[in-house]
């Protein structure tokens, strides 16, 4: 199992990444569970959160025609976000490997959106969202999953598998959640009854204190196998400092991770993990890439 703190390898230079701005089109449409909305309705004052989120997806080139196998959600009140990564092995037996991840995130979004009272009280539970989504997902397949909730000044998370998140503070990766793997490249995963997968109760759970100005970067393993947490922190911070939206920051991170995935000589996080596991591997890892960026801001002023 590769843990993410401390981090492997030195920080990488990212001074040239802003040629990959959001003005460049992503390969394939932006997709979200339940529909990908980037403009959110104005919420009542008591429901306004201290977070603004945006997302981007970049499917594996060989899977772009079917939208890839990742999915994500952002709740209508933006108190909750999540990422899921469908296990590609199902395609070998004719099963849509992304179907489970997509339906899981649809149900997660529904559970988060329905928890209006919990949002107002600051008690929304990522574990409850994950379990509700799991028990309602009834298609064949399996998926990793990461669900995060902002409750006031607390970031709560449930992560199962090798998706995950980084908390960025003052431009630095202050925390990166560890991955859960049974063996190298064999992550924990939720799945249908015939998949012999893990239960949602096996998810790692975290509670972290937030500060205004923090950034949360949540991504599938297509992000974390190809860029280091320090790089993600620098990119997201520079995007926000330049006045870019969270959606733009997510798009830039997707493009940068794809560039790294295409570099056969790059000492990627995945290559470091492979070497630790006894394999000879150099380069990035081509995969679906999904990123959700969340800016933590000051709450709306009371009139």
TrEMBL record:
It is an enzyme of class 3 (hydrolase). It catalyses: O-phospho-L-seryl-[protein] + H2O = L-seryl-[protein] + phosphate; O-phospho-L-threonyl-[protein] + H2O = L-threonyl-[protein] + phosphate. Residues 52-296 form the PPM-type phosphatase domain. The keyword Manganese applies. The keyword Membrane does not apply. Its cofactor is Mg(2+); Mn(2+). Transmembrane segments: none annotated. Keywords: Hydrolase, Magnesium, Manganese, Metal-binding, Protein phosphatase. SMART domains: PP2C_SIG, PP2Cc. CDD domains: PP2Cc (cd00143). Its EC number is 3.1.3.16. Gene3D superfamilies: PPM-type phosphatase domain. PANTHER family: PROTEIN PHOSPHATASE 2C, PROTEIN PHOSPHATASE PTC7 HOMOLOG. This is Protein phosphatase. It comes from Tetradesmus obliquus (Green alga). The lineage of its organism: Eukaryota, Viridiplantae, Chlorophyta, core chlorophytes, Chlorophyceae.
């Amino acid at each position: 199992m590769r843990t993410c703190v401390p981090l492997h390898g030195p920080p990488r230079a990212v001074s040239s990444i802003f040629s990959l701005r959001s003005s460049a089109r992503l390969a394939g449409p932006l997709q979200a569970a339940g529909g990908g909305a980037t403009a959110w309705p104005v919420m009542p004052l008591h429901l306004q959160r201290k977070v603004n989120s945006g997302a981007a997806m970049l499917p594996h080139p060989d899977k772009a025609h079917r939208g890839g196998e990742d999915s994500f959600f952002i709740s209508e009140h933006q108190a909750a976000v999540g990422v899921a990564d469908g296990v590609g092995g199902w395609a070998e037996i004719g099963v849509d490997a992304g179907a489970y991840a997509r339906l899981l995130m649809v149900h997660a979004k529904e559970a988060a959106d329905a928890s209006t009272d919990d949002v107002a009280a600051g008690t929304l539970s990522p574990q409850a969202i994950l379990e509700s989504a799991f028990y309602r997902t009834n298609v064949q397949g399996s998926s990793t999953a990461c669900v995060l909730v902002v409750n006031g000044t607390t970031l709560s998370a449930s992560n199962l598998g090798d998706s995950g998140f980084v908390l960025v503070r003052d431009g630095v990766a202050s925390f990166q959640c560890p991955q859960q793997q049974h063996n190298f490249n064999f992550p924990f995963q939720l799945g249908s009854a015939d998949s012999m997968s893990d239960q949602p109760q096996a998810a790692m759970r975290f509670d972290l204190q937030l500060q205004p100005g923090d950034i949360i970067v949540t991504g599938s393993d297509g992000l974390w196998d190809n860029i280091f947490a320090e790089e993600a922190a620098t990119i997201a911070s520079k995007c926000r400092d330049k006045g870019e939206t969270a959606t733009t920051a997510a798009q830039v991170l997707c493009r940068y991770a794809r560039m790294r995935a295409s570099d056969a000589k790059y000492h990627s996080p995945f290559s470091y993990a492979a070497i630790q596991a006894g394999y000879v591997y150099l380069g990035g890892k081509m995969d679906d890439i999904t990123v959700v960026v969340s800016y933590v801001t000051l709450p709306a002023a009371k009139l």
